[in-house]
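Appendix B. Chain record.
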Amino acid sequence: MTGKPDWTGRRLEVEVGAVAHGGHCVARHEGRVVFVRHALPGEVVVAEVTEDAGGGFCRADAVEVLTPAAGRVSPPCPLADMALGRDRCGGCDWQHASGETQRELKAAVVAEQLQRIAGIDWPVQVRELPGGLLRWRTRARLAVDRRGNAGFRAHRSHRVIPVEDCPITAAGAMAEVTDRRWRPGAELTVVEDSRGEVHVTAVDHKPQRRHARPVARHVRGGEVAHESARGRAFDVSVQGFWQVHEAAPDVFSETVARLAAVPSGGVAWDLYGGVGLFAAVLAEQVGPTGSVLLVESSKRAVEDAVANLRDLPQVSFRAGTVERVTADEELPVPDVVVLDPPRKGAGRAVVDAVTARRPSRIVHVACDPAALARDVGLYAERGYRLRELEAFDAFPMTHHLECIALLETTGE
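Structure tokens predicted for this chain:
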């Protein structure tokens, strides 16, 4: 026990400071740090404390803005209204900020993480993707409350906030899940693919039969979503991974192609390769005399990748963890390695395995700024330096973004 009073429920008038990683800003009150959501740097707000574990910080939501920042706007979603307090939807972080302001905040977060974790001062600019701030999301997961209503969870809570619509999600997809009742406790996956077909899958976590395991039910559409990028078709399991922003597959694959620049006849690795989005790009670059190795732990994703790239014999496939597969010393030495690890990043074992082969370039795709900075620091230990960084607002209204980094050997 710390002996400090619990501030939960207390309302504090604070001056809001810099943005922090995670969709909130930093304020201070009576010697403690207060992480404030729904505020912007430079504002004076009344913040209600929502969590207080008794340490040096607590969490709060802005419930009244006394001095607004220039970048503040009215949220387009009614579930982001400040008057709702804790009943606000937890899916978005920056509904109250203009698009330009959101991108500036995200750029500041990436720059701060690179400086603090990797010791690199890097000017960051976050690019807007085509399509604007709304209706960009083609894949979403929803929960079902006790009354059978579909919705999203409140921030850092299991409470379900029922929704009639979600303005960042494709309208047709949302209409398929919000106009009916579902089994309480179920989780829903809704996908609107590149053809405009909507797929809805429900997983009932409280099966009717005792001891029965949860089973995914395909309520609408099939098991496979039909996607496309750069003129190539990709079939993807509706439960599998595909970029959620409708413009992201094209933009990201074009960026990877530019940064990778694999020579004709060369060798490329595509680690965490999924259903083959980046492998297709690399195969075009190496041509019929080169080779591309796609590594992916999901057997279903590998099956999809094999089918998607069946016209590219220069691509080979290995199902297994990146750590295990890259430990095989008989693999062809790569000229370029592309990797798109999960949110936690690649980590030391993968960075060591990749850099041990001394590729001339590493193209690293990251969806978490802190994980990116940690991995960039690990690359630096192995003689690779950050040469270029592209950052994209691939998740407008949220604190998330995507970065694609180019690292090159220093020759040491």
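Further analysis of this model is presented in Appendix C.
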